[in-house]
Amino acid sequence: MTxxxxxxxxxxxxxxxxxxxxxxxxxxxxxxxxNIDNRNIELSYCDETCQGKIxxxxxxxxxxxxxxx
Length: 69
What we know:
Blueprint: E1 2-7, E2 12-17, H1 23-33, E3 42-46, E4 51-55, E5 61-68
Antiparallel strand pairs: 1-2, 1-5, 3-4, 4-5
């Protein structure tokens, strides 16, 4: 499946091919390519919309991602 990541700061976007959908895989991609200041982030995901949010330690929305199955 393909994941489309968007980080709002510096308008960074990329796609990644993943074989298993889990938080560790998503987090690794975000930390490697997202150029984020704080590694302490949380992810939320909705199965119905196939979309998720990337939230920093201050509970601010810093990006999002969507899954294309």
